[in-house]
């Protein structure tokens, strides 16, 4: 594993296109771990060609929605903190199998899974904070989109 200080200088990006550093999502409120170790992949995977039953991103990866900040190529915790100020966009998209310690909320509806049509439907299993939206239904792509204001990357 590459050793890197926790707060690398802002603006310094990996030289290759891939952001190779594995991170975990944790609950911003209580610090509970909410994902397996994942590596950022290009947001290009988020183009709406994902078919029903297919994962938006493979396991072990996450992608960041192009956010209201417009800093889709930036990476790192400082940018995430700024994303947290934005009310929309910038969500972190993971494979459902990489999400952990989350539980359904009351508005979790779907046919044979979660359709995500009623807004965020997953909460931190420890503290109950609303953390994101899972889509795992038979007619949706398979994904969990975490709210940037609810999670931290560590
Ligand atoms: Zn929590």
Structure description:
The chain has 154 residues and is mainly β. The chain has a single domain, classed as Metal Binding Protein, Guanine Nucleotide Exchange Factor, Chain A (Beta Complex), CATH 2.170.150. It contains 1 helix and 10 strands, in the order ββββαββββββ. Strands 1-3-4-5-9-8-7-6 form an 8-stranded mixed sheet, with no helix packed on it. It is globular. It starts with 18 loop residues before the first strand and ends with a strand. The model is unreliable at 7-17 and 69-87 (pLDDT under 50). Zinc ion binds next to loops.
> Biggest sheet, in brief?
8 strands, mixed
Strand order of the largest sheet: 1-3-4-5-9-8-7-6
Shape: globular
The small molecules bound here are: zinc ion
Distance between the termini: 14 Å
CATH topology: Metal Binding Protein, Guanine Nucleotide Exchange Factor, Chain A
In N-to-C order, the SSE pattern is EEEEHEEEEEE
β-strand amount: 15-25%
- The CATH architecture term is Beta Complex
Q: What is the gyration radius calculated from CA atoms? A: 15 Å
What is the quaternary state of this protein?
A: single chain
Text of the CATH class: Mainly Beta
Q: Helix count?
A: 1
What proportion of the residues is helical, as a percent range?
under 10%
- Total domain count: 1
- Secondary structural class: mainly beta
**Please, what is the average pLDDT?**
81
